[in-house]
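Before relying on records like the one below, remember that each one covers exactly one chain. Contacts with other chains, cofactors or solvent are not represented anywhere in the record.
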Amino acid sequence: MTMVWVTSAKYIEDYRVALVFNDDTEKEVDLSSYPYRKPFEKLRDIEVFKNFTLDSWTLTWDDGNIDIAPESLYKMEDCSIGIVAEDDSPEYGKIK
C-alpha cells in the first residue's frame, strides 16, 4: 500500500467526518465506535470530538495525545452514500 495521509477533514455530524487523502480519495467516515475504546474515551464528549485538529498526517485530539492512523481511516468504509439531487431533479433518488 502506498503511504497515505489526510489532507483535509471536516466535521459533518455526530461522529462522522469527511476526509480527503493525499491521493485525492474522498470519503465520509463514521468514528462512533472509537470513543468506546482505549485511549479514545475522552471523545465520548461530542464537543471534544468536534474539536479535532489536522496535523501533517491525520486527525488528532487532546493536543496530539489522541490520533487515528491515516491508514486506518483510509481503510474505513465510506458512509456518505445517499441521495445526490433534490426531489424536483431528474437525478433525484439516485445513489451516488
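Confidence is low (pLDDT under 50) at residues 83-96.
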